[in-house]
Queue: 4 jobs
Job 1
Amino acid sequence: MLKFVMRTALFPLAVASMSAMATPASDPHTPPPESLKPLLSMINERLEIADLVALTKWDSAQPVQDSDRESTVIANAQRQAASYAIAGDEAAQLMAAQIEANKLVQYGLLSAWHSDGKAPPTPRPDLGNQIRPRLDALQTGLLQQYATFSRSRTDPACPLWLNQALPKLAKDRLHEMALIRATGELCVAQPPATAAVTH
């Protein structure tokens, strides 16, 4: 069942990943900036917490989708953005990507557990009093690290950095696909130069 879900729901992400891998860098030897590693580490840590969120959703039979919570998280990021010299829309896009990646992990895990008829006996922290405060604290760190990395978003080698780094961070294929989703907008492609028209 999990294989079917990942093939159907995650296929577009796989295509996006392959497209990014095919993007040539102007200088393949350009090393990633030091700011990339801590940013990806925080993104990955947030996805690890998604496992715990999924367990609480399993126990409570609550839906993965929580639109009110998502709106609150994104609005808070927009309010914090100016403190880190980030545009509000950028902060919103960053956190929206993290939310979608988090849900991807939850859906994948819940599908597997339903197929098995049980969830793992992992201790469950409280969602409201323990897990969400951790996510809120990570949000501040994410905005800080994103602000530091932001000047490198347009580097032509940016997709290559991600393609090399993400597989090393992920503990399995589901989390690797979630990392791809979480970092989907980190790199900004520059439009090709157009030749001047002469008459």
Job 2
Amino acid sequence: MTHIFWGYILIFFHIKINGFDLLPNFLGYIFIFIGLSKLEGMHFKKAKPFAVFMAINSLLFTIGGLIGALFEGELFAIYNLFTLGIWIYMSYLIMLGIKDLEVITGRQLGFQNLFTIWKIKTILHVITMLFVFTQNSILVFIGAIFTVIFIVMNVIFLIFFYKAKTIYESKND
């Protein structure tokens, strides 16, 4: 679970210098893939191809950004919503995998709290994306507010994920 945790950190946070992201998302997805490969369970296995897709997708966008490609317009917005759906499904499978780990190991990893936070942050993510893609300045402003709340929810999610990871790995050694 450590690799998945670090993958989430690389995906959630962006440190840019001269437009270059020092924590590129594609590395986060690679970390998630590695983590999924180390864990047993049907849901973790199902999530692996989606992690590969997201890694390739993110790598292509990283390269495109480096060479100055512009990603805008309605088609790009639709594609962004498509990849958001892939991301949501992949992370949902990871949540179900953690639930499976609770059953398999008989340990309380805090799945219910983690899943509740995941649902809230996922709803916020979708709302934020929809608001940001509008041309209405009021909705874009509301989207910006939701973005701040979304960032806070990501931090809370990471805290709960870290607790689950720590419980799982401390008892697994």
Job 3
Amino acid sequence: MQKIVIFGNSGSGKSTLAKKLSNKLNLNYLDLDTIAWQEVQPTVREILNISINQIEKFIFLSEKWVIEGCYTSLLTVVSQHCDLLIFLNPGIETCVKNCQLRPWEKHKYKSKKEQDDNLTMLINWVKEYETREDEFSLTEHQLFFNSFSGQKLELKSNQESLLIINLINNKKQNLMIY
């Protein structure tokens, strides 16, 4: 387990799990949010080929890695290189609670207040996960997960994510996924 992709709805725990796996397993970490949006205009999507080039560069320069995000267009590229795919699917209610408890994301917001001012919009977006018809939707994530032929896990609660971390903490780093 050297190349891990984690995906799911906003608030599903992607960043939390990815950072913990990165620290415990000494993996390079990439949050797709950092390359999916234009740096000079953070509300505008980056040109897809530019994001893909950045992913390919990261993968080329990293022997071991964990990559997380919700962008099916980018996940499709990343999944060609991973040996474990983790779909975090804890349900809307859990995602909303996780968003409400989320620490300040300095790479996305200039201040905690700016992040908190955006919380209502984020929660409304999270609640649309099951009905949206875009690359961020539950439907697209399920299709992506189901089409992946390698080792994969679907975790349906924060507790299941903690179980993975606890297994690693107990030095069972060679998880066998069926």
Job 4
Amino acid sequence: MYSQRYCISIAFATLLLVSPAFAGGSRRPALMRVQHGSIVSGDPTPLAKAKGKPVVLYYWDMTCIPCIVHLQDTIDFAREVRRDGGRFFSIHHGMKQTAATLQDFAKKQKVPYTIARGGSGPNTIRSLPRMFVFNAKGDLVYQGAIGKLAVEAFKAQIKP
């Protein structure tokens, strides 16, 4: 059996690797390092032009069940981001769907945010959906799932 000290060490190391609170320092990738493919729906302005405003970057796939289950929450959050002066940008991670399929999906679901087809993220994308929040300087301040923590991370970036 493993010792208690060993198990605690492994748990703490895991926490350091996955916790947004420990994503600081030189490990924080800049927003401008994010590459995206062709924009198929929404605002055609490239992500690189979002300088000076907080940005939420959302990775998803049409075949990802949690992505579809949380679609309405994502849409609501995107509207909140826009209302508060930020930019919500999504990258469809799967490449099996055509641009036309993504455009139809966006139209039917009334998706209010930009959808780009393919690209690379600020970190390795290991699971979907995946959300990244950047401050106005382009520093990564949150990475994880959509939810309360993502909303709080974005709200902390808004100037009072």
